[in-house]
UniProtKB/TrEMBL annotation:
Keywords: Membrane, Transmembrane, Transmembrane helix. Coiled coil: none annotated. The lineage of its organism: Eukaryota, Viridiplantae, Streptophyta, Embryophyta, Tracheophyta. This is Alpha 1,4-glycosyltransferase domain-containing protein. It comes from the Eukaryota. The chain crosses the membrane at residues 12-33.
Amino acid sequence: MFDKRVLKRAKISIFSLITFSALTFLIHYGVIYRDSLQTVANKEALEVLQAHTHKNGEGLRSTLTHTHIPLRSMQEEKEEVGNGDHIVLVAPFNVTEEERIAWFRGKIHEFKILKSDKLSGQFHARVMRFFSQECESQFFMTWISPASSFGAKELMSIESVFKVHPKACLVILSRTLDSIHGSMILKRLLDEGFKVQAVTPDLSFLLKDTPAEAWFYELRKGNKDPGEIPLFQNLSNLIRLVVLYKYGGIYLDTDFIVLKPLTGLRNSIGAQSMDVSNKHWTRLNNAVLIFDMNHPLLLRFINEFVLTFDGNRWGHNGPYLVSRVVERLGKRPGFNFTILSPMAFYPADWNKISGLFRKPETRGESKWVEAKLAQLSGDTYGVHLWNRQSSQLKIEEGSVMARLISDHCVICNSVGKTVDC
């Protein structure tokens, strides 16, 4: 009996020892494996950037000298993707202004776009270094959403820029795309030799010595009402104005398809709608802006943003803002800018954009598609897709959009079947 009990205890001890050893090995292996994955991922991302080269006046030079992608852990990448400002940081509805300001003060440290840190502090130097390449034109876009939501439609927009302007330089002002994840998203464009770079914006620098400097200071202190509309959307309206004011160039929304060169335009803004009876514009839009550096009209726009900011009204700080300012100016001399007709940038208004995505089902609809394409080949520089209305639409086979994509992409995906935007 005694021998059986001893033997039983010995077996239990041996089993426990084996189990403990196995668990220790698995935990240790898991840590090593996780760290190895992270190291490999970071290494691969850097190798992608280091391997990519492009031609310039001095021969071959590594794109890495212009990108300066920050190293971030996989955990930081995961948090970045999952906690975009437009998902989490939306002010509560149906509250008083005081309650909304109190909410904003409690959340202000989570608004990454308001941050000034080492990365954003490199903004100006990185932009100037990037534009020191042989750029035939300077383009800007903004992206303040998570990198994971930068999808096929946005890439399609960028492709159209380089299809028409192969030697252009494009800066995307974005903290989320200025990352390993973002560099992988833009990889296929870099592999083609196109000059595109995401750069974390420094709003303190951009707004310095402009009418918006004091406004931004008060915003960061939590003394401004952000409004019910996500703040990042209204800040995008401001960023496009100040980046053109400080650098000059062409600003495009990421839902704009370029059809013909924009470089022949100067100090131009497009009308969204027009009174057909008198040919006078009724509303302008800020999805496309083409201006010289330090243009006085941009300064007027920035000043209007500060004086009339309202975060509760859609379009008030964007299309309606530029419309108000230009309407007040009238034909006052000294501003030297051009207003283009709706056909230039907005050939399909927001409530008719879905027609460009639909497959023609009848002979009459097929003729309409051909007529629309012929019309777009005339005075149209590009098509604004009105993302709020078209984001859930599919590009159907034979539609106007399918035809445009096949003609204006540089890394063409198949559009012979219905695809998601």
